[in-house]
Amino acid sequence: MGIRLRVTEIFHSLQGESRSVGWPTVFVRLTGCPLRCRWCDTAYAFQGGERMDLEQILARVAAAGARHVTVTGGEPLAQPGCLELLERLCDAGHEVSLETSGALDIGEVDARVSRVMDLKPPGSGESGRNRYANIDCLRPRDQVKFVIADEADYQWSRARLREYDLDSRCEVLFSPVAGSLEPATLAEWILRDRLPVRFQLQLHKILWGDEAGR
After folding, report:
1. How far apart are CA 89 and CA 111, in angstroms?
2. Is 211's pLDDT higher than 80?
3. What distance in Å separates the CA atoms of residue 88 and residue 69, rounded to the nearest whole number?
C-alpha cells in the first residue's frame, strides 16, 4: 500500500495570508492537530477526513490549474506522509507553502517549500508547545507568524523577535486575532516600536467572513 493521508478538504481560493497573499491557490487541508489553540478557526479539521492516496490528492490539485499550493491543517506535519506529499507537489512544478504550528520538527521538509511557522504567544494557550529548535532550521524563503490576541501577546512576541533575531533569518508576520484585538491597535504598536515585521490581516475573512472552504 502507498502513502495515504487523512484529508479534510481540498479547495481553490485566494491565499489569505503570508507572502503569497492574493494569489489563486489550491489548499490541501490535512486532518488532525495535537494543539488546541484558544483562537483556532479550523477545529473542524481535528477529526474525520477522507483517506486519500498521494495520486488522488495530486490529481485534485492539478485539476484546479493553480501554480500555488498550500498544505495546511490542523497540523499537517502530524501525518508523516505529509513530507512526501510536499515533495511530490514540488516535483509537479507547484509553488508550495506549508502552514505549521511550530510544535513539530520542520527540519525534514523539502527545501523547495516555503514554511510558514507559528510561534504561539501565551494567549493561544499553547505557548509551551513551541519547538524553538525549529528556529535554527529557518531559511530566507520561510516566514514566522505571530497571531496576537492582546497587549501581553504583543509584548511576548516582540521579545521573541528580538531574542532570536528573527528578522535576520526570514520574514516575520504579526497578525491580530479576529474579534479579540483591533487591527489598527496592533498596527500602531508595530509603528510605535519600529518593528521589522509585516502586519497582515486575513484576506479571506475580509472577503467571505468565517465561511469554511473558500
Report:
1. 12
2. no
3. 12
Q: Distance from first CA to last CA of the chain, Å, rounded?
A: 32
Residues near 112 by beta carbon (within 8 Å), at least 6 away in sequence: 90, 96
Please state whether the predicted TM-score (pTM) of the whole model is above 0.90. Answer: yes
User: Nearest-5° angle of CA 129, CA 134, CA 135?
Assistant: 110
- For the chain, what are the domain ranges? 4-208
CB 148 within 8 A of CB 176: yes
**pLDDT attached to residue 206:** 87
**What does the alpha-carbon distance between residue 7 and residue 15 come to, in Å, rounded to a whole number?**
19
Contacts (Cβ under 8 Å, ≥6 apart) of 130:
102, 103, 119, 120
b or e along 6-26 (b: 16 or more beta carbons within 10 Å of the residue's beta carbon)? bbbbbebbbbbbbbbbeeebb
Average pLDDT estimate for 110-120: 98
Q: Which of 111, 112, 114, 36 is nearest to 78 (CA)?
A: 36
Tens digit of pLDDT for each residue in 17-29? 888 999 999 999 9
Tell me the C-alpha distance between 69 and 105, whole Å. 21
DSSP H stretches of helix in 48-95: 54-64, 82-91
The class of domain 4-208 in CATH terms is alpha beta
